[in-house]
Amino acid sequence: MVELGASMEQARRLCYTAGGRGPSGAEEATVEYGVTSRCVTLPLDSPESYPCGDEHTPSPIAGRQPLEVQPLLKLGQPVSAVAALQADGHMIAFLGDTQGQLYKVFLHGSQGQVYHSQQVGPPGSAISPDLLLDSSGSHLYVLTAHQVDRIPVAACPQFPDCASCLQAQDPLCGWCVLQGRCTRKGQCGRAGQLNQWLWSYEEDSHCLHIQSLLPGHHPRQEQGQVTLSVPRLPILDADEYFHCAFGDYDSLAHVEGPHVACVTPPQDQVPLNPPGTDHITVPLALMFEDVTVAATNFSFYDCSAVQALEAAAPCRACVGSIWRCHWCPQSSHCVYGEHCPEGERTIYSAQEVDIQVRGPGACPQVEGLAGPHLVPVGWESHLALRVRNLQHFRGLPASFHCWLELPGELRGLPATLEETAGDSGLIHCQAHQFYPSMSQRELPVPIYVTQGEAQRLDNTHALYVILYDCAMGHPDCSHCQAANRSLGCLWCADGQPACRYGPLCPPGAVELLCPAPSIDAVEPLTGPPEGGLALTILGSNLGRAFADVQYAVSVASRPCNPEPSLYRTSARIVCVTSPAPNGTTGPVRVAIKSQPPGISSQHFTYQGWVGGSWPVCSGLGKEGVVHFGPRR
């Protein structure tokens, strides 16, 4: 633009003082557009005495010397209209093309960048050269063949927040920090002051933000001070101030440079924790009057809620939480602050450093069962559990209890502590006979330990004992003897034969050899002479395992081959019949080892199918479903 201005001034000077000719005698300036006036030769001071103005419009001077420069910008269509605006120290060009596109171009040094474009009028309708800015420089009038449009030079108000304002990259816009809106620079009352107006086009321009909080969270039970670090915070006048808004609670801010100190709300002004949580997070905003200058979130935590949310391991939850909570083992309280109440030992938060007794590993805890986890119903059982870190109770009148969560009942048993090497020990629960209401063979029962009757020790993992009743699911001798040996179940053949835990069986009543097999039903009772029929045998004491019956079954004195996948201990055998002459008949016989065989009262008959061809077994499916095919 400077070179263009100098070239225009040179043409005017030559037309005033040298008849339009340059030092070489060549014509470099003339009066254009068919005007009869000609360039003249006047005194050399004439250009200063008679500067160009509106009165010269009838005699327009044109330069003959071309001015060559590299283009700042190349567009895809020919430019049909140009207007320019200088505002806030920046040059903005408005270019219209022959297709109706209007471009807003930021002229910055030796570069031109289109930062916005829009269609004006119907596509293909050229923008007229008569682009006109209004007197305030806020709107541009754009003329096409069919319409006139009044277009804002900048659309700053359409950006609702700082982020969208700066992302717009509009050189005429910026964020007015204390007004909380996107404006032209002239519309921001303190734009000339440092950090008051953030220019949208500046590369490293960032919205004000809270860079850090110290502390990052606070216990809800007490008021305290929070320090916000806010880089590039504007400076206020002496009678003005910032304030902090913790949700609905306002607190006056004290500012020192980029650091802002605010007092947190009292406990009754902190909202309640959402159900099932140990904290509440509220918006924290740094405000000027009713304008949010910067914002973040801030959490108020409750150590007692941490404890309540993890009943099985309250100490581990307390000292292992993200909050700075400590555990008081003697009173079983999770507390904030520096330590437990005076005189009580403290297990410190895992976040503490240079403290030995800290973190979940220091908690009094039950590590597991010291003996078998299987507990027979009706037998007086002694339970022992491995514990660690009970030295916190040493020297105190501490008592312990074991608790079992039985169906519909919480059973408490007095317990004693046996200290072993180091910080380990054993909790011995008082011997007890259990008679729970059981609808299943084995019943998992959670177990835990308390100091006193309510102060629970941590379980390092889910801890159970398994109550079992040998009689459940073992209706006969074979079922009983097939039970897992670790259960110790035996068949008692006393006045009321039953499967019982071994020590509960009277002396001499244990039956090591089960009664002979008993066959209750056979199905079907007829089948094809070719064999291949799946025969189902139901009864009791039909073996403890498939190996007992694999070669033990015959039908009408013909072998019947048991199917292993369909065998059910003691209760069911499914076997495939062998061929036999038509008319052969006889009972089903099951002979297990040296026992007397079980013989059915029903007889099976091999016979041809009267209706034509007898369907024969072509395969066994799930649960004894037999697939038949046509006889061949």
UniProtKB/TrEMBL annotation:
CDD domains: IPT_plexin_repeat1. PROSITE patterns: SEMA. SUPFAM superfamilies: E set domains, Plexin repeat, Sema domain. Pfam families: PSI, PSI_Plexin-B, PSI_PlexinA-B, Sema, TIG, TIG_2, TIG_plexin. Gene3D superfamilies: Immunoglobulins, YVTN repeat-like/Quinoprotein amine dehydrogenase. It comes from the Eukaryota. Keywords: Cell membrane, Disulfide bond, Glycoprotein, Membrane, Receptor, Repeat, Signal, Transmembrane, Transmembrane helix. Residues 1-153 form the Sema domain. InterPro entries: Ig-like_fold, Ig_E-set, IPT_dom, Plexin, Plexin_repeat, PSI, PSI_Plexin-B, Semap_dom. It is found in: Cell membrane. GO terms for molecular function: semaphorin receptor activity. It is a single-pass type I membrane protein. One of its GO terms (cellular component) is plasma membrane. Belongs to the plexin family. This is cDNA FLJ61676, highly similar to Plexin-B3. It comes from Homo sapiens (Human). The lineage of its organism: Eukaryota, Metazoa, Chordata, Craniata, Vertebrata.
